[in-house]
Amino acid sequence: MGPGKGKKCACTCTCRHCAVPTEEVCRKKEKSEWIDFLQGQILHVPLHAPNMNKHLSWDDHELTLSAAGPVFSKCRLVVVFRTFHKQLECLPIYTHGGKGVQSKSYEDPEEWLSVKDERSSRKDTSQSLLVSLYNGQVVRENAHVHVTESITVERAGDVQVRGMMEGSSFAKLHQRRAKLDKAARNEAFKEECQQRVK
């Protein structure tokens, strides 16, 4: 596979990102086209990361060879966590192949929150974040938001709004992130103190 080359996505999504690019650059919105994104909105965006999955076939349609190595690209749902002038800080939603985060023994469960469809049965949703997707779409089973994985999304990008998180659910997400942020700061302060003692 040559640099920048890939195959057409096999999914049924109508998203423009899922087709093989025919231009050298992605579409950039003019400032007049920017919309006012809201905290808790669910967006559909293309994400790219170094491929570290040794089981992924070299000819997988989501794998591209770049000058820096193989890159895994996939469109995902993300939650808008904070908004800035040009960028949005978003948290990604994963299903781990439909198996859920519980299938990954090395993950810290404190860093994940379950995501369920607001229109589904509300049984066992006390620890879940409720989301409503537009156009009759539903949240896939075993979906979880990764609370500590911040993704930067450009306002000028070709971003699609796909739904909204319930207000109380977003507050729950914010509280969990604040708790983890505080724990990380305390850990860093502890390490700094230990270095000074030495």
Number of strands: 9
Order of helices and strands: EEEEEEEEEH
| Number of structural units classed as domains | 1
What spatial order of strands do you see in the largest sheet?
1-3-4-7-5-6-9
Instruction: Give the uncertain stretches in residue-range form.
Output: 1-12
- Please describe the biggest sheet, giving its number of strands, its sense, and whether it closes into a barrel: 7 strands, mixed, barrel
Number of helices in the DSSP assignment: 1
Shape by Cα distribution: globular
Assign the structural class, choosing from mainly alpha, mainly beta, alpha/beta, alpha+beta, or little secondary structure: alpha+beta
**Cα-to-Cα separation, first versus last residue:** 52 Å
Radius of gyration: 19 Å
**What is the average per-residue confidence, as pLDDT, rounded to a whole number?**
80
Question: β content, as a range?
Answer: 25-35%
Assign a percent range to the helix content.
10-25%
